[in-house]
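== Folding the chain ==

***
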Amino acid sequence: MKNIYLVIAVLLGSLYASVPENVEEFTLSNGIPVITRTIDNNDIEGVSFFIIGGSSALTEETQGLERFSLECAMMGSEDFPGLQWRELMDRTQAEWTSSFNYDYSRYHLRCIREDLPILLAAFGNSLLNPELEEQAFEQVRTSTIQDLQEKYNDPDSWIWFVANDAFMPGHTYRRLPDGTVETVSSFTTEDVSNMLEDRIRSGNLLITHAGPTQPEELRTILEQAFGEIPEGGQEFLQVEPFTVDRDTIAVQHREVPTAYAVVKFNAPPQGHEDLIPFRTAMTVVNDLLWQVLRTDNALTYATFSGATNYRENWGYMYVSSPQPVLACSLMAGVLSGVIDNPVEEDIFRGTIEKSRTLENLRATSKDNQCWMMGNFEICTGDWRNAYTMFDNISELSSADLSAVLDRWVVFGGWGIIADTTVVPIEQLQPWPLK
């Protein structure tokens, strides 16, 4: 859950005061939209391939199937069988990274310019004609199950899903893109073939690019790699808002020396004018949490807060502490304190400047450029919002931040992992945020 994209979302500032001029859009012959930003400061290319849908494309029984199917496809294809695919990766030293979230799946390629055509051709062939060799298929299953078990066995990772039990019961986002041990154990090659056939359709896809290749050359490369993907695709309903109507808590007992706690609460949806002020407010809260919980009270070595970057969003606060009752009470008090009493203006301005500096460092990545354009196109309907939404952050005041938190924060869904033989469960009641 400590996903890099959540960190970036919290820290995005006013770096992008206007839409860059070197961005173009075009559509492949089969209807796949492409957004490309020409950046020719070196020969490194970045290309992101988005499959839109995420949790909306899954059922309880197919949780994790899209991720599993794509990982299986990446083991080799008809034209690039496993050994040849691995040799290509070794020769080019290309980097493939993947992420699977509630709104989309994403593969990102980082390579040098001269290798872009062959790597994208191999990727396109793996999507349309996966080898699905039995040993490789089971290797993916074993690796996926191990990852899921490790996530469950690590309370620092699993606490986020415990909080989901309290914050979003029955919501679309409860269907896990990574899947469960039970669902992944049941998948067959037929399931994978059917999933790829259903999902690898032009209407489900978006490609973004940041690098030196010019648009017309890029069009040719992408047409050769992905032009045979069939047309069509699914239409998904708008993701429903979260409807937590009271403070709730989900507690999981484990024999752990320190307890883990996360609280989630409503935040503005993607594209809402309140979202940037809300994220900025949560950055201020983040700094105050460390001051109160660590510096003043020595309750933790890890506490932070932020807000997500999905179609529907939530704010969150996290702490690990051997004294969860006191830590959670103080954590809730920090948030309610910011709502009731705007922080001093110099503290607020210092947070803004720090965020700008951090974002300047992050914005040089072509990976981040591809993610920004794709994420905002999918979640808001216009990639330009990745740049224009942050124009007015410098005009905010500390009072604005308190006001936006007051509008959105009502009830919290708490998740706690603790040793309930040490911390009595009756003490673990939800702490009001207002």
Observations:
- Residues 20-226 form a domain with the Cytochrome Bc1 Complex; Chain A, domain 1 fold (CATH 3.30.830.10).
- Confidence is low (pLDDT under 50) at residues 1-17.
- The chain has 15 helices and eleven strands.
- The two ends are 26 Å apart (CA to CA).
